[in-house]
Design goal:
single chain, 326 residues, alpha/beta, Rossmann fold, seven-stranded parallel β-sheet, five-stranded parallel β-sheet, binds (2R)-2,3-dihydroxypropanoic acid
Length: 326
Amino acid sequence: MGRDKVFVTRELPPASLDRLAKHCEVEVWHEFLPPDYDVILDKIGGLAGLLCLLTDRIDAPLMDAAPQIKVISNLAVGYDNIDIPAASQRGIPIGNTPGVLNETTADFAFALLMATARRIPEARQYIQDGKWLTWHPTVLSGQDVFGATLGIIGCGRIGAAVMRRAQGFNMRILVSSLESADEIRQLGGEKVSLDDLLGQSDFVSLHVPLTDETHHLIGERELKQMKPTAILINTARGSVLDPQALYAALRDGEILAAGLDVTEPEPIPLDDPLLTLDNCLVVPHIASASVATRAKMAEMAVDNVIAGLQGQPLPTCVNPEIYQRR
Ligand code: DGY
């Protein structure tokens, strides 16, 4: 019997790929852009494992074309690119990379918060435009972070890590999430309704996964409830926010600014109106992009593939219920 075949849909750190190659025959997609859906469809019939990225759509037809697949491992904590119920129905374990990126992502959410509050990208542009002619009492004045009220929507691992940072800035922390009021109090926050959070917060930071329930969770109605001085930060998934409603709110001064690591769609088209606004800072989905964290994510994704090939439970499995049924 030949060795198990695994397709890795993008270049990973060599140490992780070398380790994987000790366990199976590895094919890596070396292009900068992701493989087309049809490329994966074409290969998957012969695969025992697939190590994919959040840019790869993994759906039921793909799974049906993969009779020998033992594991699908996503190099991300989020897994909205994969049809999990379809995988569970077919008994396919799905791995993700939780935990290792919490602090790095929380650092970045705070970086976006600080950058938008203190208008750092605008200030850089101001110099480049030759406008720095003198010190001026009002030019580029922003919002104070210290002592302000922060609203956290979704208080999982990353939301809690953002809260720890906010405590260092003496912020009042309001939380809307599924956790109990007690759990949130222990983390230093106060559980409130979404409406109260939106109405009272100076900063709102999104930390929910993308699901049918959270799709466009923040739209026109929600944005209208926010303060005109409020700043919205999204490091979760682009589709948690309605981009058209956000554009209108930023344009019309219903909220002050937004910092977006994630967009709908990704990549954001260059003619997207959000990119015309000085009060909207958009960066290309890099919140977890520290060298160390991305290396750890690759190691976890490889651990999941190896366990799956060996018929072991994945160390970090999104659908562990499949093991109960075996
Ligand atoms: C994830 O892991 O889901 C992030 O969005 C990628 O860093």
